[in-house]
Queue: 2 jobs
Job 1
Amino acid sequence: MTDEQVVVKYEEEHIAFVKLNRPHALNALNYESLCVLGELVNEIRVRRDLRAVVFFGEGKAFCAGADLKERRTLSPDQVRRNVLKIRDVFTEIENLPQPTIAVLHGFALGGGFELSLACDLRYAAKHTQFGLIETSLAIIPGAGGTQRLTRLVGPMWAKKLIFTAERIQSDLALQLGILTGVEEDFESAKKKAITIARGIAENGPIAVRQAKFAINQGQNVDLTTGLEIESQAYELLIPTKDRLEALDAFAERRKPVFLGE
Ligand code: CO8
């Protein structure tokens, strides 16, 4: 480990912020960053008071992908270790019970783009460049990109983007359904993400988690199974105090206060 804090977590009210913090390397992901990222994600997972998570990058980019300088020094087994690690960490991010939002600016390339694809929502600054550029390095997207991008944009566009390794700008990424929204610059994209996170945090937290669970689990199953997952997720909400609080608040013409109980 180095003295540098390669990934930083802080919290504001019910929202966790995870900042990639290797700006001198455009937040490229080395093995240490992946390990710290994984630890922080697992700390967030068990926190009932955290209701949304915002990921962003320090400096002039979100993330330029795998650390190519480190990669050059690795044996094939160490490369396998890194690929397994990145895949596991991104799956842990995807499976976080809290909604996740990525704020993208500068570059979101390779593993950096794949990290954002593991998040639920993506807001980008106008001039951000996106690309699953791995085939230009004689590898393929190995951190979920071939699967998650395809589910978002369909196989034709996923193939075009991955085969050509092209970098696209925010406007096309928005058009393709990769982005939830585009803002003028990093600050406004982050502000937008925080506004969305705060809005989410005001809703019933158990309901939001159950909704995320039902959507994620239902994506890869047939409709009948998906409807059964939804029904079970709903069932868990019936005995909650928050559900009764919502009904009381409606009757009393006030805003509900949800405690996550
Ligand atoms: N790894 C390490 N260092 C990097 C990386 C990187 N990916 N990207 C940028 N840097 C460093 C540069 O070397 C430079 O450092 P220094 O000043 O010490 O030389 C600093 O960041 C700033 O970069 P540039 O001067 O190059 O900045 P530019 O604005 O001129 O260019 C680019 C920005 C276009 C993003 C350019 O830096 C670039 O092409 N970077 C490489 C992008 C890339 O190919 N990423 C890898 C994609 S493949 C991948 O992510 C595979 C993931 C799959 C699983 C991985 C398991 C771990």
Job 2
Amino acid sequence: RTVYVNGDYLPETEAKISIFDRAFLMADGVYEVTSVLGGKLIDFDGHLARLERSLNELDMKKPAAFDDLLEIHRELVRVNEIEDGLVYLQVTRGSDGDRDFVFPDPETTEPTLVLFTQSKPGLANSPQAGKGLKIISIDDLRWGRRDIKTVQLLYPSMGKMMAKKAGCDDAWMIEDGHVTEGTSNNAYIVKGNKIITRQLSNDILHGITRAAVLRFAREAQMEVEERPFTIDEAKAADEGFITSASAFVMPVVEIDGQTLGDGAPGPVARRLREIYLDESL
Ligand code: PDD
């Protein structure tokens, strides 16, 4: 696989980053994941807009212009022959060659820019979409700026492991009795014909797939309510689903052992998945 590091396209085994890089020492970095379907980047503009926002919120320098970043994405998709899969991009604050809590001088320290691809043949036809996900609920123990897409992913990773140990697929995180989001996705429930999902704030990541799916839902005259919902409300809902760049729209069929509806992926989630994939391809 060919990867991109600070201006160079290299075999992955030759890529090098300083051990003093602040992402390595302090998780001082942000990232984006853009899906690829049929060789085409999905929602690239949205991911780039959110990257800029993450960088601004952390006073980090933009590593390259929009057009250059687009070109790097396209080149990696081309050389790695990605039909279906992902492009991962990470920007870090770099390093001035030592460990210090104080940020290095931005005048003399260049950000680190890394991109690589992951090939996932048949990404849009995942058999999981036909079965739906089993979810557990866990406390949300993350920091308070979840709107910034940082690489501090230890707790979400632990949440995923807790789900796996419980024989489930993923975890929804709870704060003050209300669901914030999934470990790596936004969370939704459906009651009757109404789609309910938490409103945007610092409490959740502003999902790019979320924005597209809510737009398609409204265009299809579906009712959308943006507000926090409790885990009890979720367990009593007709349906549930998640959205993310890698899962698109994925139905949820069970929460903490409680079956939603008849235990099969619901009609609203199935329809939104179909619309999202149709519009993206
Ligand atoms: N995760 N919430 C969290 C905490 C996320 O990590 C993600 C994305 C989302 C969905 O955002 P989007 O629709 O823009 O992908 C919501 C990516 C896919 C990941 O970490 O791999």
